[in-house]
Design goal:
Elements lengths: L5 H16 L3 E7 L1 H4 L8 E7 L4 H12 L7 E7 H5 L3 H9 L1 E5 L11 H26 L2 H23 L6 H8 L9 H4 L6 H27 L19 E2 L21 E2 L7
Parallel strand pairs: 2-3
Antiparallel strand pairs: 1-2, 1-4, 5-6
Length: 277
């Protein structure tokens, strides 16, 4: 399916969802490469559907809707009730929030307010996952396909890390590359992995990813262990946006610190008394 067909496909999906679920629909959106305008003909269509609640019958109904859609083999994405999202892990919601474009409704009415700590948690979780899988693959599987997937995931972990440090999200590769500076070298690794057989070069790429994710774990994991609040220093951003909340472990006010936080998705939201992002 060509990128230009994505819009009409989503319009048809929205129409069929409305016929089945009506006013129970809270949000319909699109995420992934098709939302970013980076899709190939074989890219998945990552549709996001949020209902007032999701029962077994709803899952079956949604499956039937997708079965009736053209390009069924490309249909992918996320289905959830609004209640589940309100309690979801904040770090997991970071990329979800920034990588999803609305078709119907608004995520602002669904998700809790975002804090810098969400990005720090996303960066830490991503780094830990990539680190573990990269070591495992290098020792046991030696699969270029797995390494390709991990190198792709590096982009999203890097975007979370940059946001945690600066308070700015960069959706495009070119903007992220410029913002990340020297660290953007991690974005170039995938070009050497795609379609390649495992050899000594793959060992070298794996080692570079392991070294990079290790540095992120050290950066974002250290503050998590000590329970430091997830605010940026005053030199990074001069004031707090009106909708911002600070993520802290036990505090309800902020003091300047490096990113990193331990609060869950609904706990630890404090009013901002310091300078943070």
């Amino acid at each position: 399916m060509d990128q230009s067909e994505t819009g009409p496909w989503m319009s048809l999906l929205r129409e069929r969802l409305m016929e089945t679920f009506g006013d129970r629909i809270i949000f319909i959106g699109l995420q992934g490469s098709r939302a970013r305008g980076e899709a190939t003909e074989n890219s998945d269509v990552d549709a996001v559907v949020i209902l007032d609640r999701v029962s077994h019958e709803d899952v079956v109904s949604y499956r039937c809707i997708l079965d009736s859609m053209p390009y069924r083999e490309l249909a992918c994405g996320f289905l959830s009730g609004v209640g589940e999202l309100s309690g979801w892990m904040a770090g997991d919601l970071f990329q979800f929030r920034h990588d999803t474009i609305p078709i119907s409704g608004s995520l602002d009415a669904v998700l809790p307010p975002e804090g810098i700590g969400d990005a720090a948690e996303a960066a830490l979780a991503g780094a830990c996952t990539i680190y573990h899988m990269c070591v495992h693959n290098m020792v046991h599987e030696r699969s270029s396909e797995i390494l390709d997937g991990l190198s792709k995931q590096c982009r999203f972990t890097l975007s979370a890390a940059v946001f945690a440090r600066t308070g700015a999200y960069y959706g495009s590769i070119s903007d992220l590359r410029e913002a990340a500076g020297e660290e953007s070298r991690i974005l170039d690794l995938r070009d050497s992995v795609q379609g390649a057989e495992w050899d000594s070069r793959m060992d070298g790429i794996s080692s570079e990813i392991i070294e990079w994710t290790s540095s992120l774990i050290s950066e974002f994991g250290s503050d998590r262990r000590t329970g430091i609040s997830t605010c940026q220093s005053s030199s990074a951003r001069p004031s707090c946006p009106s909708r911002t909340r600070c993520r802290t472990s036990r505090r309800t006010s902020c003091r300047p610190a490096r990113p990193g936080g331990t609060a869950g998705p609904r706990s630890g939201w404090g009013s901002c008394a310091g300078t943070c992002t």
